[in-house]
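[stage:ingest] chain + small molecule (adenosine-5'-triphosphate)
[stage:ingest] validated
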Amino acid sequence: MAETATHEPSTKLLLEVVTPDKLLVSEYVDQVIAPGSEGDFGVLPGHCHFLSTLRIGELQYRVGERTAYMSVLWGFAEVTPQKVTILAEIAEKAEDIDVERAQAAVARAEARLERGGLPSEVEEAKISLEKARLRQKVAERLKHQRGL
Ligand code: ATP
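[stage:predict] done
[stage:export] C-alpha coordinates:
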Protein backbone atom coordinates (compact mmCIF):
# COMPACT_ATOMS: atom_id res chain seq x y z
CA MET A 1 0.00 0.00 0.00
CA ALA A 2 1.29 3.45 -0.90
CA GLU A 3 2.21 5.64 2.02
CA THR A 4 0.33 8.89 2.46
CA ALA A 5 2.67 11.87 2.14
CA THR A 6 2.83 13.79 5.38
CA HIS A 7 3.92 17.33 5.87
CA GLU A 8 6.12 18.31 8.75
CA PRO A 9 3.87 20.58 10.83
CA SER A 10 5.32 24.06 10.83
CA THR A 11 6.47 24.81 14.36
CA LYS A 12 6.89 28.58 14.05
CA LEU A 13 4.82 31.55 12.97
CA LEU A 14 6.17 34.46 11.00
CA LEU A 15 5.10 37.63 12.81
CA GLU A 16 5.16 40.92 10.94
CA VAL A 17 4.19 44.17 12.65
CA VAL A 18 3.83 47.04 10.22
CA THR A 19 2.82 50.68 10.64
CA PRO A 20 2.41 53.22 7.83
CA ASP A 21 5.99 54.35 8.58
CA LYS A 22 7.89 51.14 9.05
CA LEU A 23 8.24 47.41 9.50
CA LEU A 24 8.75 47.04 13.25
CA VAL A 25 8.94 43.27 13.56
CA SER A 26 9.62 40.46 11.12
CA GLU A 27 10.48 37.42 13.17
CA TYR A 28 9.68 33.73 13.58
CA VAL A 29 7.86 33.30 16.87
CA ASP A 30 6.14 30.58 18.87
CA GLN A 31 3.02 32.43 19.99
CA VAL A 32 1.27 35.78 19.57
CA ILE A 33 -1.37 37.40 21.78
CA ALA A 34 -3.01 40.37 20.10
CA PRO A 35 -5.51 43.02 21.26
CA GLY A 36 -8.53 42.31 19.07
CA SER A 37 -11.48 44.69 19.14
CA GLU A 38 -13.58 41.87 20.58
CA GLY A 39 -10.94 40.88 23.12
CA ASP A 40 -7.41 39.51 23.18
CA PHE A 41 -6.76 36.50 20.95
CA GLY A 42 -3.90 34.03 21.04
CA VAL A 43 -2.33 32.47 17.97
CA LEU A 44 -0.17 29.35 17.77
CA PRO A 45 1.30 27.86 14.57
CA GLY A 46 -1.40 26.15 12.54
CA HIS A 47 -4.18 28.54 13.56
CA CYS A 48 -7.02 28.82 11.06
CA HIS A 49 -7.32 31.83 8.78
CA PHE A 50 -8.76 34.75 10.68
CA LEU A 51 -9.14 38.53 10.36
CA SER A 52 -9.69 40.98 13.19
CA THR A 53 -9.66 44.68 13.85
CA LEU A 54 -7.43 45.80 16.71
CA ARG A 55 -8.10 48.10 19.65
CA ILE A 56 -5.68 50.10 21.78
CA GLY A 57 -3.84 47.35 23.61
CA GLU A 58 -0.77 45.27 24.23
CA LEU A 59 0.69 42.85 21.71
CA GLN A 60 2.77 40.01 23.16
CA TYR A 61 4.87 37.51 21.30
CA ARG A 62 6.97 34.67 22.58
CA VAL A 63 10.12 33.22 21.10
CA GLY A 64 11.21 30.24 23.20
CA GLU A 65 11.40 31.51 26.78
CA ARG A 66 11.49 35.19 25.82
CA THR A 67 8.30 37.26 25.63
CA ALA A 68 8.35 40.64 23.90
CA TYR A 69 5.78 43.39 24.43
CA MET A 70 4.50 46.17 22.21
CA SER A 71 1.86 48.86 22.33
CA VAL A 72 -0.53 48.73 19.40
CA LEU A 73 -3.05 51.45 18.61
CA TRP A 74 -5.80 50.33 16.24
CA GLY A 75 -5.41 48.54 12.92
CA PHE A 76 -5.96 45.02 11.61
CA ALA A 77 -4.57 41.56 12.14
CA GLU A 78 -4.51 38.80 9.56
CA VAL A 79 -3.82 35.28 10.77
CA THR A 80 -2.93 32.33 8.57
CA PRO A 81 -1.58 28.95 9.75
CA GLN A 82 2.01 30.17 9.21
CA LYS A 83 1.83 33.91 9.62
CA VAL A 84 0.42 36.77 11.70
CA THR A 85 0.38 40.21 10.11
CA ILE A 86 -0.36 43.18 12.34
CA LEU A 87 -1.13 46.33 10.36
CA ALA A 88 -1.22 48.94 13.09
CA GLU A 89 -1.93 52.62 12.83
CA ILE A 90 0.66 53.22 15.57
CA ALA A 91 2.87 50.73 17.39
CA GLU A 92 5.92 50.84 19.62
CA LYS A 93 8.24 48.19 20.98
CA ALA A 94 8.52 48.31 24.77
CA GLU A 95 12.16 49.37 24.54
CA ASP A 96 11.30 52.31 22.26
CA ILE A 97 8.73 53.82 24.62
CA ASP A 98 9.69 57.15 26.14
CA VAL A 99 8.37 56.70 29.69
CA GLU A 100 8.61 60.39 30.63
CA ARG A 101 6.66 61.35 27.52
CA ALA A 102 3.94 58.84 28.43
CA GLN A 103 3.88 60.16 32.00
CA ALA A 104 3.47 63.73 30.73
CA ALA A 105 0.69 62.57 28.38
CA VAL A 106 -1.13 60.92 31.31
CA ALA A 107 -0.89 64.14 33.36
CA ARG A 108 -2.14 66.24 30.43
CA ALA A 109 -5.06 63.91 29.73
CA GLU A 110 -6.05 63.72 33.40
CA ALA A 111 -6.00 67.53 33.67
CA ARG A 112 -8.16 67.78 30.54
CA LEU A 113 -10.64 65.28 31.96
CA GLU A 114 -10.83 67.21 35.21
CA ARG A 115 -11.54 70.45 33.32
CA GLY A 116 -14.33 68.71 31.39
CA GLY A 117 -15.66 70.29 28.21
CA LEU A 118 -17.49 69.21 25.12
CA PRO A 119 -18.27 65.49 24.85
CA SER A 120 -15.85 65.25 21.92
CA GLU A 121 -13.07 66.85 24.00
CA VAL A 122 -13.75 64.52 26.90
CA GLU A 123 -13.74 61.53 24.55
CA GLU A 124 -10.42 62.65 23.04
CA ALA A 125 -8.90 63.07 26.50
CA LYS A 126 -10.08 59.56 27.47
CA ILE A 127 -8.40 58.10 24.40
CA SER A 128 -5.17 60.02 25.10
CA LEU A 129 -5.23 58.68 28.65
CA GLU A 130 -5.79 55.12 27.46
CA LYS A 131 -2.90 55.38 24.98
CA ALA A 132 -0.51 56.89 27.52
CA ARG A 133 -1.44 54.34 30.23
CA LEU A 134 -0.91 51.53 27.75
CA ARG A 135 2.56 52.90 26.94
CA GLN A 136 3.36 53.04 30.64
CA LYS A 137 2.16 49.46 31.15
CA VAL A 138 4.14 48.11 28.19
CA ALA A 139 7.30 49.97 29.25
CA GLU A 140 6.87 48.56 32.80
CA ARG A 141 7.07 45.03 31.38
CA LEU A 142 10.73 45.61 30.59
CA LYS A 143 11.47 46.65 34.16
CA HIS A 144 9.87 43.44 35.43
CA GLN A 145 11.80 41.37 32.90
CA ARG A 146 15.03 42.98 34.01
CA GLY A 147 14.06 42.41 37.63
CA LEU A 148 14.11 46.16 38.46
P1 ATP B 1 2.06 62.70 23.08
O1 ATP B 1 0.80 63.26 23.69
O2 ATP B 1 3.07 62.23 24.08
O3 ATP B 1 2.66 63.57 21.99
P2 ATP B 1 0.41 61.19 21.33
O4 ATP B 1 -0.57 60.30 22.03
O5 ATP B 1 -0.07 62.47 20.81
O6 ATP B 1 1.64 61.39 22.33
P3 ATP B 1 0.44 59.53 19.07
O7 ATP B 1 -0.39 60.36 18.17
O8 ATP B 1 -0.24 58.37 19.71
O9 ATP B 1 1.12 60.40 20.19
O10 ATP B 1 1.74 59.03 18.29
C1 ATP B 1 2.50 59.91 17.48
C2 ATP B 1 3.87 59.30 17.29
O11 ATP B 1 4.60 59.42 18.51
C3 ATP B 1 3.85 57.82 16.94
O12 ATP B 1 4.90 57.54 16.04
C4 ATP B 1 4.13 57.14 18.28
O13 ATP B 1 4.78 55.90 18.11
C5 ATP B 1 5.02 58.15 18.96
N1 ATP B 1 4.88 58.17 20.43
C6 ATP B 1 3.88 58.73 21.15
N2 ATP B 1 4.11 58.61 22.45
C7 ATP B 1 5.27 57.94 22.58
C8 ATP B 1 6.06 57.50 23.69
N3 ATP B 1 5.69 57.70 24.95
N4 ATP B 1 7.22 56.85 23.44
C9 ATP B 1 7.62 56.63 22.17
N5 ATP B 1 6.93 57.01 21.07
C10 ATP B 1 5.77 57.67 21.27
